[in-house]
Design brief:
The protein is α+β, with helices and mostly antiparallel strands. Helices cover 18% and strands 32% of the residues.
Length: 207
Amino acid sequence: MKIGKWVKANRGIILFLFGMAFFRTAVADWNYVPSGSMEPTLYPGDVLVVNKLAYGPAVPFTRSRLWSTGEPSRGDVITFFPSHTDQCLVKRVVGVPGDRLRFAGSSIWLNGERLTIEEKEGALWQNLTPLLAHKVQLSTSDLATDTFNGEFVVPEGKYFVMGDNRHQSYDSRYWGFVDKSQVVGKVAAVGLSLSDRFVERFASDVL
C-alpha cells in the first residue's frame, strides 16, 4: 500500500525519468570523447550529440534496431561498442562494405586511389573527396610518424573506422571491423567542449 501511494505521489517524476531514459536509448543521446584519437576534430572531454535515428530506430533500452533506415557512409563520425571493450568509442568511417584500403607508411589508398594530403590554415587536411564528402583534419605529427602498413577488404555488414589523429588512434587497423549491430548512432554536433576553439568548431562543419 505504501509503495502504491509513493508511486502515485511521484508519478510525474517517474514518468519524466522514464521518458528521458526512453529518449536517450531510442532517439538521441550524448557521449563523451574518451581520448585524443579524433584530434583536432574532437577533443577529450567533448560532449557529443548522437543521433540514434540516423541508421534506424533503436529498440528502447537495448542495442538492437527495429528496422534500418540507412547505412553509415564514408566520412560519418559514429559512436559504437567494439568487440574488445565495453567502452563506447567515437571514430570516423573510412571504409564501407566492398571497399579496399591499403596503408603504406603515411599514405592511404582507397579502392586504388591515393588519398592526397594538403596543408590548410596551418593544419594538415586529408582530402578524401570525392571518395569522402568530408575533409578530415589530421594532427601535424601524422605525416612523419604514421608508418602503419596493411591491406583490408571491408566485408558485408562491416565498417572500417579510424581516428583523425591516426598516429594516436587505436582503431580498425589493429582490432578489425565494426559490425553494423555495434553502431550506436551518428555524431550530429559538439554539444559542449572545454577547448578554447569550441565556438569555432561548433560553428563550422568539422564533422
